[in-house]
Amino acid sequence: MKxxxxxxxxxxxxxxxxxxxxxxxxxxxxxxxxxxxxDLYALGFNPVASSADFSERANPDYLVYALEQxxxxxxxxxxxxxxxxxxxxxxADLIIFSFPIYxxxxxxxxxxxxxxxxxxxxxxxxxxxYDKGGLRDKQAWVVATLGGQPHMFGAxxxxxxxxxxxxxxxxGTLGYLGFDVLTPFFGYHVPYITHEDxxxxxxxxxxxxxxxxxxxxxxxxxxSDFDERLYPLSETAQGLSQEPNRHEALKARRRDDHNQMVLxxxxxxxxxxxxxxxxxxYHKGVGMxxxxxxxxxxxxxxxxx
Length: 305
Ligand SMILES: Cc1cc2nc3c(=O)[nH]c(=O)nc-3n(C[C@H](O)[C@H](O)[C@H](O)COP(=O)(O)O)c2cc1C
Prior knowledge:
By secondary structure, this protein is α/β, with parallel strands linked by helices. It folds into two domains: 3-214, Flavodoxin domain (Rossmann fold, 3-Layer(aba) Sandwich); 227-302, no CATH class. The protein is built from ten helices and nine strands. The protein has helices at 16-30, 40-43, 65-75, 83-91, 108-117, 162-165, 167-175, 195-210, 236-241, 276-302, and strands at residues 3-8, 34-39, 94-100, 139-145, 180-181, 185-187, 250-253, 261-265, 271-274. Strands 1, 2, 3, 4, 5 and 6 form a six-stranded parallel β-sheet that branches. It has a three-stranded antiparallel β-sheet with strand order 7-8-9. The site of flavin mononucleotide has 15 residues, from helix 1.
């Protein structure tokens, strides 16, 4: 038996998004899970993070919101409208986020819940994120509806890949906090499909709720692949030496941290760590190319081309 919290953000109780949420709750209860629904619009949840969230300040002269969250959680002085939500997060084994996509993102009321409830301190902080995040013993599932159609999303789709579009939520929030993040459910083209298609979508959705335990997970970085200053551990240097053509796309930049050189890929902005020797080789290569270009130019000049 799981404890399931559904955080629901839709302003219309008769909407299809709300129907997905009620179907999820019904199906999960049928399976014997305990389900609590937080309906943000029905509650009139205040989404604005501000100094009013702290009745006693660590620093009354200057607001650093995350530091005050830590202080307020520790001293029990969080605003009364935040506290029950924090307790619900702590209680849950699985949190389902149910919402329509607004502007490639979540409705503002849900974004405000994230800002105010997912506290710095108990849930993340310092080097406690991704697989070291404070919520790593919990699962998260995003259930979202949208106006767009499936062909508009994907590597070649006009809007790019949908999970990438929501990476601020899937990775930047849920993965970052350590959640085991299930692959999202997307209800496409919802305002435009027929009643019959909506019924079919609800049936598919209920089936997916029943199979939640075997749902694939999203992959996120492990902090064990990074050093204590979050530089990637050095296997990327080998990748570079296997791909000599990429040298042309690299702009060199020197950093003295760790006695290592870091190249920044001019096309993608990706950084690649190199040892001193590899860095010298790279420069030799660039020098040879410059000499060859100069020789060609002199030849063209001599031949009056
Ligand atoms: C403010 C706003 C922004 C929206 N942004 C998007 C968007 O970025 N992409 C998209 O496909 N649909 C977008 N939509 C469409 C909604 O996602 C869609 O109408 C909703 O999911 C339908 O579900 P419902 O019938 O339960 O309301 C937007 C709708 C509104 C009102």
